[in-house]
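Exercise 7.
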Amino acid sequence: MKLRIQFYSYFKDLTGCAQITETLADGSTIDDLFKQLMIRFPKLAAMQRSTLIAVGVEYQDRSYALKDGDEVSLFPPVQGG
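Solution. The predicted structure, written as tokens, is:
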């Protein structure tokens, strides 16, 4: 299945891009996607435990089963001042 991945905030700097298309096997989860992204973009590994991930407009946990055509967004942790 093909997914559209969006990177926000300083994740754009970590990956060197704002968006990519990624291909995964049917039945893959967000955790599977993130593992694949860490191989492609090793700098994401440091953010593994604090990355916020949304599919469409809903935040999802790592066990969420992705579907062909999903748009996945990765955000750094929210910071306030």
